[in-house]
Structure formats: structure tokens, C-alpha cells
UniProtKB/TrEMBL annotation:
<comment type="function">
    <text>Catalyzes the reversible adenylation of nicotinate mononucleotide (NaMN) to nicotinic acid adenine dinucleotide (NaAD).</text>
</comment>
<comment type="similarity">
    <text>Belongs to the NadD family.</text>
</comment>
<dbReference type="GO" id="GO:0004515">
    <property type="term" value="F:nicotinate-nucleotide adenylyltransferase activity"/>
</dbReference>
<dbReference type="InterPro" id="IPR014729">
    <property type="entry name" value="Rossmann-like_a/b/a_fold"/>
</dbReference>
<keyword id="KW-0808">Transferase</keyword>
<dbReference type="InterPro" id="IPR005248">
    <property type="entry name" value="NadD/NMNAT"/>
</dbReference>
<keyword id="KW-0547">Nucleotide-binding</keyword>
<keyword id="KW-0662">Pyridine nucleotide biosynthesis</keyword>
<keyword id="KW-0548">Nucleotidyltransferase</keyword>
<dbReference type="InterPro" id="IPR004821">
    <property type="entry name" value="Cyt_trans-like"/>
</dbReference>
<feature type="domain" description="Cytidyltransferase-like">
    <location>
        <begin position="6"/>
        <end position="173"/>
    </location>
</feature>
<keyword id="KW-0520">NAD</keyword>
<comment type="pathway">
    <text>Cofactor biosynthesis; NAD(+) biosynthesis; deamido-NAD(+) from nicotinate D-ribonucleotide: step 1/1.</text>
</comment>
<protein>
    <recommendedName>
        <fullName>Probable nicotinate-nucleotide adenylyltransferase</fullName>
        <ecNumber>2.7.7.18</ecNumber>
    </recommendedName>
</protein>
<keyword id="KW-0067">ATP-binding</keyword>
<dbReference type="Pfam" id="PF01467">
    <property type="entry name" value="CTP_transf_like"/>
</dbReference>
């Protein structure tokens, strides 16, 4: 049976924290591959300015280049309207009926899952693998299970390193003209510079 990880994100921009997260999930769960899926329209971030989906998709492709276990899907970029994870996972479940699917996310997002669309459908289609996120506590699975029945058994809590990297911090640094060495893969840094995606203000 093939074990696939699915890492959804806004990826504005993709960073080393995402690559370390995917590597940690591969190592802990014995995944055969991780599919990175940039959100076409991240509805939770509707109030903030987000880079065009085509640019984020391109950056994700650059970020994973040379890592054969990491793939990229444009399934959410091509699907019109708000990007809902349950729809993506139902599509992937149909595509890979016999595979073990893990939706990978940080502890910050696991805690927010009761606010997501059809969280029950998410855990029917896939298991969850939740990794530490610097600044966020280990999620209380019993409390979450009271709100989303079944989530406790559907979730694997990963106990990897707390990596203090976030896309919002990177955008803020770039807007101030500060260096982002070691925070984003060099090929992504070159793309950001060439396209002037986060201009200095
Ligand atoms: N440093 C990190 N450690 C663990 N998980 C992370 C880390 N960075 C991102 N993630 C997780 O990766 C997924 C995609 O994250 P996203 O693309 O929104 O990046 P982000 O750094 O959280 O962005 P922003 O700071 O703009 O909110 C989310 O589930 C998030 O929790
Ligand atoms: O489906 C939802 O309702 C939903 C709500 C918030 C976030 N998500 C997904 O969670 C992933 C990480 O989101 P974000 O906002 O942290 O980049 C990404 O794949 C989003 O589409 C999904």
C-alpha cells in the first residue's frame, strides 16, 4: 500500500519550515511521497493580500525541485472558488482509493480545524499528521474530539523540532529589505527577487 502525505498551504512563499515539515512527516510515518498543494483561494486569508496562485504554484515547484519524494499538485489552483480541504481530499481519495493518505498540518491549523468546512469529511477521507508549530501548544485531542467526533483516532501527533519559520515573517523581512538566507530555498529566493513579489516599502 502506498502511503502519501498531502501538504496544503498558501505558500506565500514556500519556506524551509515547509520542507522540514514534509521531511519530518516522511521520516515519522514512512511516507512514499508528499504532495504539496497550494491553495487557489485560501478563504481564511480573504481579508489579506495574497500573491497570485500562479506565482505561489511556481514557487512551490521550485522549492521541491530535486527532491523526488516531493510532488506538486495544481488541483486547488485549477478548481474555481474557495479552496476547501475536504473537496481536495475527497478528490484524492477517489484518485487513490487503496492508499493511506495523511493530511499534514501544523499544530496551529489542527487547533483551528473545528472552523474549517466539513471537518468530518476531512477525517473520513484522510488521516491527519500534526507537527509542532513554534508558539502553539500541543493540541488537546480529547477537546478536539468533542467538537469533531473521530478526530482523536484519525490524528497522529508528530513530535519533531519546533521550527521558527513562517511565511508572514519572511514577507515582513522582505518588505523591510532584510535578508532571508536559510529561510527560503535559494531557487525560491531568486524567483522572488526576479519577480519582485514582496517589494520593499
Ligand atoms: N515552521 C513550521 N513548522 C510547522 N508547520 C508549519 C511551519 N510553517 C508552516 N507550517 C504548516 O504548513 C502549512 C502551510 O502553511 P502556510 O503556507 O500557511 O505557511 P505559514 O508559514 O503558516 O504562512 P503565514 O505565516 O503566512 O500564515 C500549515 O498547516 C502550517 O501550519
Ligand atoms: O477547508 C477549509 O475550510 C480550510 C480552512 C483553512 C485552511 N485550510 C487549508 O489548510 C492549509 C493551510 O492553510 P494556511 O491558511 O495555513 O495556508 C491549506 O491547504 C488550506 O487550504 C482549509
Amino acid at each position: 500500500m502506498v502511503k502519501r502525505g498531502i501538504l496544503g498551504g498558501t505558500f506565500d512563499p514556500p519556506h524551509m519550515g515547509h520542507l522540514m515539515l514534509a521531511e519530518e512527516a516522511c521520516r515519522c510515518l514512512g511516507l512514499d511521497e508528499v504532495i504539496f498543494i497550494p491553495a487557489g483561494e485560501p478563504w481564511v486569508k480573504a481579508a489579506q493580500q495574497v500573491s497570485p496562485a500562479a506565482e505561489r504554484l511556481e514557487m512551490v515547484k521550485l522549492a521541491v525541485a530535486g527532491r523526488p519524494c516531493f510532488k506538486v499538485s495544481d488541483i486547488e489552483v485549477r478548481r474555481p472558488g474557495a479552496s476547501y480541504t475536504w473537496e481536495t481530499l475527497v478528490q484524492l481519495r477517489d484518485l487513490y482509493p487503496d492508499d493511506e493518505l495523511y493530511f499534514i498540518l501544523g499544530w496551529d491549523n489542527l487547533a483551528a480545524l473545528p472552523l474549517w468546512h466539513h471537518a468530518g469529511r476531512i477525517i473520513t477521507a484522510a488521516k491527519l499528521a500534526a507537527a509542532p508549530r513554534a508558539g502553539f501548544p500541543r493540541p488537546d485531542l480529547d477537546a478536539l474530539d468533542a467538537r469533531i467526533p473521530g478526530i482523536k483516532t484519525a490524528t497522529v501527533i508528530l513530535d519533531g523540532p519546533h521550527v521558527e519559520i513562517s511565511a508572514s515573517d519572511i514577507r515582513a523581512r522582505l518588505k523591510k529589505g532584510l535578508a532571508t538566507d536559510d529561510l527560503v530555498p535559494p531557487q525560491v529566493a531568486a524567483y522572488i527577487e526576479a519577480k519582485n513579489l514582496y517589494p520593499t516599502v
